Amino acid sequence: MEVILAKQAGFCFGVKRATHLAFEAADRKGETYTLGPIIHSPQVVQRLEEMGVKVLGDVNEADAGTIIIRSHGVAAEELEAAVSKNLEIVDATCPFVKKAQEHVASLSQAGYDVVVVGDADHPEVQGIVSYATGKVYVVGCGDEAAKLPRMAKIGVVAQTTQSFENLKDVVNACLAKGGEIRVYHTICDATAVRQEEAKALAGKVDCMIVIGGFNSANTKRLAEVCSELLPRTHHIETASQLDPTWFSGVEKVGVTAGASTPKWLIDEVLDRIAEIDREKIG
Ligand code: F3S
């Protein structure tokens, strides 16, 4: 079997940085916490737990030690609470998310009503919104933006994983809402690049394996876009979930992984596929 690994499989820049900072903090010993799971990879979270890093639901559960802020950021109040408790802070917020937070703060201060394009339930959006000091609205699409009230000055910022098309739709709708609009392009293309590459790969193989947390939205989306093109697509978290029957009659296998999937999990899957291939021949 020929196995083709997508070039952009696995960690994006922000997740790689956050994971590195978390393992570095864990190595320093002492009480160490993350606010929520550091990334959407149960296996990475488990490794950190084995090194003594505890996952907290609330900053008030920690009285001393180090707190690691996850890659998609936290709300301003949570950060302030950590500072006021004198916790040591390792801020692993992705610099792209940080930029979106800063733009919201500066737009608010300059008197703009802020429109955040994104999913209101996502922690990244909740974090971004918390930096507004004036009016702020979250809209998921242009149709929702069309229902916004009229505003004198509108500032638009997007959740980093939004599509460019959706941002354009919202901006278009906002043009009818106010006299002055300032737009910040805060989209990170890591997700789109992974999806495009996965689609291209799914179009030229017989079977696709997508690796990543079942709780990872970007991995689930990768599996969806692949299975639309290739029904023989399987989403797994670890090598042990590979089923040898998936590969019967398969000549080419494509492998990709979500932005929160570590390299060691990808390597284990590649090794297991090679083993299954040897068993097929033998
Ligand atoms: Fe950052 Fe983009 Fe990854 S915003 S966390 S580099 S998907």
Automatic annotation (TrEMBL):
<feature type="binding site">
    <location>
        <position position="218"/>
    </location>
    <ligand>
        <name>isopentenyl diphosphate</name>
    </ligand>
</feature>
<feature type="binding site">
    <location>
        <position position="218"/>
    </location>
    <ligand>
        <name>dimethylallyl diphosphate</name>
    </ligand>
</feature>
<comment type="pathway">
    <text>Isoprenoid biosynthesis; isopentenyl diphosphate biosynthesis via DXP pathway; isopentenyl diphosphate from 1-deoxy-D-xylulose 5-phosphate: step 6/6.</text>
</comment>
<dbReference type="GO" id="GO:0050992">
    <property type="term" value="P:dimethylallyl diphosphate biosynthetic process"/>
</dbReference>
<feature type="binding site">
    <location>
        <position position="40"/>
    </location>
    <ligand>
        <name>(2E)-4-hydroxy-3-methylbut-2-enyl diphosphate</name>
    </ligand>
</feature>
<feature type="binding site">
    <location>
        <position position="260"/>
    </location>
    <ligand>
        <name>isopentenyl diphosphate</name>
    </ligand>
</feature>
<dbReference type="GO" id="GO:0016114">
    <property type="term" value="P:terpenoid biosynthetic process"/>
</dbReference>
<feature type="binding site">
    <location>
        <position position="260"/>
    </location>
    <ligand>
        <name>dimethylallyl diphosphate</name>
    </ligand>
</feature>
<feature type="binding site">
    <location>
        <position position="122"/>
    </location>
    <ligand>
        <name>(2E)-4-hydroxy-3-methylbut-2-enyl diphosphate</name>
    </ligand>
</feature>
<feature type="binding site">
    <location>
        <position position="260"/>
    </location>
    <ligand>
        <name>(2E)-4-hydroxy-3-methylbut-2-enyl diphosphate</name>
    </ligand>
</feature>
<dbReference type="Pfam" id="PF02401">
    <property type="entry name" value="LYTB"/>
</dbReference>
<feature type="binding site">
    <location>
        <position position="160"/>
    </location>
    <ligand>
        <name>(2E)-4-hydroxy-3-methylbut-2-enyl diphosphate</name>
    </ligand>
</feature>
<keyword id="KW-0479">Metal-binding</keyword>
<feature type="binding site">
    <location>
        <position position="12"/>
    </location>
    <ligand>
        <name>[4Fe-4S] cluster</name>
    </ligand>
</feature>
<protein>
    <recommendedName>
        <fullName>4-hydroxy-3-methylbut-2-enyl diphosphate reductase</fullName>
        <ecNumber>1.17.7.4</ecNumber>
    </recommendedName>
</protein>
<feature type="binding site">
    <location>
        <position position="188"/>
    </location>
    <ligand>
        <name>[4Fe-4S] cluster</name>
    </ligand>
</feature>
<keyword id="KW-0004">4Fe-4S</keyword>
<dbReference type="InterPro" id="IPR003451">
    <property type="entry name" value="LytB/IspH"/>
</dbReference>
<feature type="binding site">
    <location>
        <position position="122"/>
    </location>
    <ligand>
        <name>isopentenyl diphosphate</name>
    </ligand>
</feature>
<feature type="active site" description="Proton donor">
    <location>
        <position position="124"/>
    </location>
</feature>
<comment type="similarity">
    <text>Belongs to the IspH family.</text>
</comment>
<keyword id="KW-0408">Iron</keyword>
<feature type="binding site">
    <location>
        <position position="40"/>
    </location>
    <ligand>
        <name>isopentenyl diphosphate</name>
    </ligand>
</feature>
<feature type="binding site">
    <location>
        <position position="40"/>
    </location>
    <ligand>
        <name>dimethylallyl diphosphate</name>
    </ligand>
</feature>
<feature type="binding site">
    <location>
        <position position="94"/>
    </location>
    <ligand>
        <name>[4Fe-4S] cluster</name>
    </ligand>
</feature>
<dbReference type="GO" id="GO:0051745">
    <property type="term" value="F:4-hydroxy-3-methylbut-2-enyl diphosphate reductase activity"/>
</dbReference>
<dbReference type="GO" id="GO:0019288">
    <property type="term" value="P:isopentenyl diphosphate biosynthetic process, methylerythritol 4-phosphate pathway"/>
</dbReference>
<feature type="binding site">
    <location>
        <position position="72"/>
    </location>
    <ligand>
        <name>dimethylallyl diphosphate</name>
    </ligand>
</feature>
<feature type="binding site">
    <location>
        <position position="72"/>
    </location>
    <ligand>
        <name>(2E)-4-hydroxy-3-methylbut-2-enyl diphosphate</name>
    </ligand>
</feature>
<keyword id="KW-0560">Oxidoreductase</keyword>
<feature type="binding site">
    <location>
        <position position="218"/>
    </location>
    <ligand>
        <name>(2E)-4-hydroxy-3-methylbut-2-enyl diphosphate</name>
    </ligand>
</feature>
<keyword id="KW-0414">Isoprene biosynthesis</keyword>
<dbReference type="GO" id="GO:0046872">
    <property type="term" value="F:metal ion binding"/>
</dbReference>
<comment type="function">
    <text>Catalyzes the conversion of 1-hydroxy-2-methyl-2-(E)-butenyl 4-diphosphate (HMBPP) into a mixture of isopentenyl diphosphate (IPP) and dimethylallyl diphosphate (DMAPP). Acts in the terminal step of the DOXP/MEP pathway for isoprenoid precursor biosynthesis.</text>
</comment>
<feature type="binding site">
    <location>
        <position position="216"/>
    </location>
    <ligand>
        <name>dimethylallyl diphosphate</name>
    </ligand>
</feature>
<feature type="binding site">
    <location>
        <position position="72"/>
    </location>
    <ligand>
        <name>isopentenyl diphosphate</name>
    </ligand>
</feature>
<dbReference type="GO" id="GO:0051539">
    <property type="term" value="F:4 iron, 4 sulfur cluster binding"/>
</dbReference>
<comment type="pathway">
    <text>Isoprenoid biosynthesis; dimethylallyl diphosphate biosynthesis; dimethylallyl diphosphate from (2E)-4-hydroxy-3-methylbutenyl diphosphate: step 1/1.</text>
</comment>
<feature type="binding site">
    <location>
        <position position="216"/>
    </location>
    <ligand>
        <name>isopentenyl diphosphate</name>
    </ligand>
</feature>
<feature type="binding site">
    <location>
        <position position="122"/>
    </location>
    <ligand>
        <name>dimethylallyl diphosphate</name>
    </ligand>
</feature>
<keyword id="KW-0411">Iron-sulfur</keyword>
<feature type="binding site">
    <location>
        <position position="216"/>
    </location>
    <ligand>
        <name>(2E)-4-hydroxy-3-methylbut-2-enyl diphosphate</name>
    </ligand>
</feature>
